[in-house]
Amino acid sequence: MERYEIVKDIGSGNFCVAKLVRDRWTKELFAVKFIERGHKVLLTPTHLAIVMEYAAGGELFERICSAGRFSEDEARFFFQQLISGVSYCHSMQICHRDLKLENTLLNGSTAPRVKICDFGYSKEAMKMTEVPKVGEFSMRGSMGLDDLDADTDLDVDTSGDFVCPL
């Protein structure tokens, strides 16, 4: 970092902070993401790689495509896990904001466990006064993101979109 001077923070996520930096030599501005040290990061000559958990079962979307249709029991098994995961995220004041079948992975066990992934659009719900309960219907998510709790409403509403394909 000797070459760069930190100008200011420009954003933060759950696992990183973005900062505006200035190249000391060229005076050009850049954005740099700082990832918490708890994550394993590998540097190669051409890439920065983050080591993550492997979900051997692949995407839930692919499982649905190959199965064609799930029984009601199997659909309920996966949906209950999804709702439990969304509820946990909300209890930790995290809104995913991009729930879809492609962002749900399965571990490789015979009774697969759902793993919610790709938190790139997630945000901390620091100003929320009340987190909607999972399964509670709300029109606010479809009306816009102006309300303080609209992001969690959006997560709850889009969770319902999983039912039809399942």
Automatic annotation (TrEMBL):
It catalyses: L-threonyl-[protein] + ATP = O-phospho-L-threonyl-[protein] + ADP + H(+); L-seryl-[protein] + ATP = O-phospho-L-seryl-[protein] + ADP + H(+). It comes from the Eukaryota. Its EC number is 2.7.11.1. Residues 1-166 form the Protein kinase domain. It is an enzyme of class 2 (transferase). Gene3D superfamilies: Phosphorylase Kinase, domain 1, Transferase(Phosphotransferase) domain 1. InterPro entries: Kinase-like_dom_sf (IPR011009), Prot_kinase_dom (IPR000719), Ser/Thr_kinase_AS (IPR008271). SMART domains: S_TKc. Keywords: ATP-binding, Kinase, Nucleotide-binding, Serine/threonine-protein kinase, Transferase. Transmembrane segments: none annotated. This is non-specific serine/threonine protein kinase. The keyword Transferase applies.
